[in-house]
Every structure is written in C-alpha cells, then in structure tokens.
Specification:
Catalytic activity: N(6)-dimethylallyladenosine(37) in tRNA + (sulfur carrier)-SH + AH2 + 2 S-adenosyl-L-methionine = 2-methylsulfanyl-N(6)-dimethylallyladenosine(37) in tRNA + (sulfur carrier)-H + 5'-deoxyadenosine + L-methionine + A + S-adenosyl-L-homocysteine + 2 H(+)
Bound molecules: 5'-deoxyadenosine, iron/sulfur cluster
Radius of gyration: 23 Å
Strand order of the largest sheet: 2-1-3-4-5-6
Keywords: 4Fe-4S, Cytoplasm, Iron, Iron-sulfur, Metal-binding, S-adenosyl-L-methionine, Transferase, tRNA processing
CATH superfamily of the largest domain: tm_1862 like domain
Number of helices: 14
Enzyme class: transferase
CATH topology of the largest domain: pyruvate-formate lyase- activating enzyme
Organism: Christensenella massiliensis
CATH architecture of the largest domain: Alpha-Beta Horseshoe
Helix content: 25-40%
Strand content: 15-25%
Cofactor: [4Fe-4S] cluster
Structural class: alpha/beta
Number of domains: 3
Length: 448
C-alpha cells in the first residue's frame, strides 16, 4: 500500500466526488474524501481535472436512480481521453444487487463498485484495480461498524457526526432498511470524543445523524446522549435528524427545553395526514397522535420550528385521504416541508400493493400540496419581520456575493449584507423581509 501512496503523491493525483441524496450520504462522502487524502490524493477542481471520480448514489426515489445512470454514462468520454482515470460508484443504490449488476453491465469502464458497509475498504479496492488490473465489486450485506476512518469535513462552521446507522422500521414504501441494514448505534464515548474535538477546530454547530435518532442505543438513550453532549462539550449548537414521531419521548422534549445549545428545530416526518394511509405505511402512529405530539412539543418548547416530509400518491390514497393530508398541513402549519411523489421501490411491501396511483393524479396532488405549504412557509417567514435573531454565519450567499448567509436556531436561512470575515461567527440580525425560502435582514451593530 505504501508504494501506491507514494505514487499517488508523486504524480499529484486528484479526486472528484459527486454525491446524491441525503445528509448521511454527504457525510459518507466526507469520509471517502478523508480516506483518499490519507492515500495522498488531493481534491480536483472538476471532473475533467480528476484522476479518480466517484459517484455516491441514492436509491430512495426512482428519479435519483435515473440521474445516476445518465451522469455515470457521461464519464465515458473522460475515460477515453485518460486511460488512467479510475471510476467508482458506491452508496445505497449499489447495495441493491440488481441495480449494481445493471450498472456494471451497462458501463464496462466503471472500475470499482462498493456499498454502504465497506467504505473503509476503499484503499484496498484501489490497490486491487491498480496492481491486479481487476474490476472490483464488493457490497457485503452487513459488517461490523467501521467508522474509525479519517474525515475531510466540508469548509465552514458546520459538522456532521453519525450517531447510528441503519433502520429497523420498515415503513412499507421505504428501501432504506434493505440497503442500510439494521440499526447499529455508535458508542456514546466515541461520539462525545468526536464532538469535543470540533470546537477547537472552528466548528460551531454539529448535526447528529441517524435514520431515527430517537431509537439511539449506545449504552445510553438519545436524551441522555444529548444531555452529555451539552454538559461535556463546548459546541455552541447541536442539531439532529431524523426523528420518528412514534418514539419521540417526553424526556427528549424536556432535554431540548433545558439546553439552549440544542437548536429550536425538529424535523418530524409525518408522511400522510390520513390515519388509514399511515397504517398502510406501517408508521405506527395516527393523525391524532401526531397532532397531539406537535402540540406537546410546541407547548413545552416555545418558538420551536417543526418541519416535515410528506408523500403523496401512496397506493390506495383516495381523494379523502389526500384531503386529510391537506387539512393536517393547514392545522399544523409546518415551518417547511419536503414533499415527494410516491415512488415504488422494488422489494418493498408498498410496491406490491394494489391501487397504485397514476401519474396524473399524483402530479395534481403534489402541485396542490406544494402550493399550500409554500403559502404557509411564506406567511410564517413574514411573521419574523421586525424580530432580531441570532444567526450562525455559514459563508457568502450563493445568490448575492455582497450578502452573507447563515441559519437561525430554528433553521431559517437568513441573508444579510456583511463582510466574509463573519464566516463561522454568530451575528444578531434584524429581519426586514420574509420570502418563500429565505429571510433577509440587517446586522445589529454592537455598541462600542
Ligand atoms: N417514495 C417517495 N418518497 C419516499 N421517501 C422515502 N421513500 C420514498 C418513496 N418510496 C421520502 C420519505 C422520507 C424521505 C427521506 O423520503 O418522505 O421521509
Ligand atoms: Fe425509511 Fe421509515 Fe426507516 Fe425513515 S424510518 S429510513 S422512512 S423505513
């Protein structure tokens, strides 16, 4: 391996990673980047400039899959120009045997395919391709936890930390338990050690990641883990996602209320407003229970933002079921929502259900839902006008280079005029305008 490292360094070889999907995938790409840099690779400016191109894929919905095949296909011309270029594909989609095989058959120029459980093996896979000129396909079902890999975190004050992997819930539409395996929690001491090292390195906010953080069990439960992070580290802000409504406990609500470091935001996917559909989805709560939970959270943690995920067009969803979703959205008034058209995933229970809903009805429903939620999001954003909020400045706004952007504890994006030197700092911003996705404001000058 050492001579390979030397060769990579001497030739100053560069990598480029293209990531699809959720924050879990983005964080795994940071681990892959960490491994590659440890081998001597440096980051490339673009695919054209790279000696190693990796696609980290998602398979939660069908369009993610189509996009991946299109984009991997376009790499062929780069490979024709540079025969030493290595191409790898990994992530959730490669954990599905059929999809991985189809990719290998369609694109003979792909050198390495691996899954979600063996990222740490990447250096050995590269070695096998370079030295034995073998094509590598390794996507084992499940292995021990291997998260002692280096990480190259994205620039800026935000850091992600995995607290658990996998999911046991088997919501009937969802492929995640099949591609990410059963729940495995990281040891609490290791998590705390990792977080304690963040603030000396300039990080100001940590995102704790898990498919369902509420079922974290690393010797202690999730509320205790949060308590220990608040008590034993000096990271100023803590977020987490995702919370399953079926097991968000009173204890968790009281811990969030107790510690101001824990952000005033819960992402609480509801998926549907119809109790009948929720049962078919295997979500283990009813519409009424969800509404009751939100009321309890809001009563105990004033000002907390609640966001959600909603699926429309689940098999058998009637007009009345969809009307229940709309009325729930009106009743709860989410701060924002990710909305999805149901996409059948082969191997899941819902894909086999009768009464799959046609595209026409699905698109009519999603348009109506998005319009309703946009209106609510904008109304809620307008309610912030005149208030002064603490913003963690993340960097220069992508929309306007004269503006900086950052988030409030409630996860609202705020743009305001200010110098780039504010990146990583907390700033008090007086909100002047609330638009659909963003708040606009002005910095409150500190008294000399
Ligand atoms: N079709 C549509 N949306 C889905 N999600 C998960 N699986 C599917 C599917 N098969 C959505 C859920 C989940 C989010 C991450 O993706 O709303 O909360
Ligand atoms: Fe999928 Fe349900 Fe697990 Fe979330 S909780 S990852 S939706 S199975």
């Amino acid at each position: 391996m050492n001579h390979l490292k030397r060769e990579i360094k001497e030739k100053s070889l560069k990598y480029h990673i293209i990531t699809y999907g959720c924050q879990m995938n983005s964080h795994e790409s940071e681990k892959i980047a960490g491994l590659l840099e440890e081998m001597g690779y440096g980051p490339a400016d673009s695919k054209e400039d790279a000696d190693f191109i990796l696609f980290n894929t998602c398979c939660v919905r069908e369009n993610a899959e189509q996009k991946t095949f299109g984009n991997v296909g376009r790499i062929k011309k780069l490979k024709l120009k540079n025969k030493d270029l290595l191409v790898a594909v990994c992530g959730c989609m490669m954990q599905q045997k059929q999809a991985a095989q189809k990719l290998l058959d369609t694109f003979p120029f792909v050198d390495i395919v691996f899954g979600t459980h063996n990222i740490h093996e990447l250096p050995n896979m590269i070695l096998a391709v370079k030295e034995k000129h073998e094509r590598v396909y390794q996507a084992p079902e499940l292995t021990e936890l291997h998260d002692d890999v280096p990480q190259k975190r994205a620039a800026g004050p935000l850091a992600s930390v995995n607290i658990m992997y996998g999911c046991n819930n088997f919501c009937s539409y969802c492929i995640v338990p099949y591609v990410r395996g059963r729940e495995r929690s990281r040891n609490a001491e290791e998590i705390i050690r990792e977080i304690a090292e963040l603030s000396p390195h300039g990080y100001r906010e940590v995102m704790l990641l898990g498919q369902n953080v509420n079922s974290y069990d690393g010797g202690i439960g999730f509320p205790q883990l949060l308590t220990r992070i608040c008590e034993e580290t000096d990271i100023p802000r803590i977020r987490f996602m995702t919370s399953h409504p079926k097991d968000l406990s009173d204890e968790l609500i009281s811990v969030i209320g107790r510690y101001p470091q824990i952000c005033r935001h819960i992402h609480l996917p509801v998926q549907s407003g119809s109790s009948r559909i929720l049962r078919e989805m295997n979500r283990n709560y009813t519409r009424e229970a969800y509404i009751g939970l939100v009321e309890k959270i809001r009563k105990n943690i004033p000002g907390i933002a609640i966001t959600t995920d909603i699926i429309v067009g689940f098999p058998g969803e009637t007009e009345a079921d969809f009307a229940d979703t709309l009325s729930l959205v009106r009743e709860i008034r989410f701060d924002s929502a990710f909305t999805f058209v149901y996409s059948p995933r082969s191997g899941t229970r819902a894909a086999e259900m009768p009464d799959q809903i046609g595209e026409e009805i699905q698109s009519k429903r999603i348009i109506e839902l998005v319009a309703l939620q946009n209106e609510i999001t904008e109304q809620r954003n307008r309610e912030y006008v005149g208030k002064t909020l603490e913003v963690l400045v993340e960097g220069i706004s992508t929309r306007d280079p004269g503006h900086m952007c950052g988030r409030t504890s409630t996860s609202k994006m705020v743009n305001f005029p200010g110098p780039p030197s504010l990146t990583g700092e907390f700033a008090d911003i007086k909100i002047t305008q609330g638009k659909k996705t963003t708040l606009f404001g002005e910095m409150i000058k500190e008294e000399p």
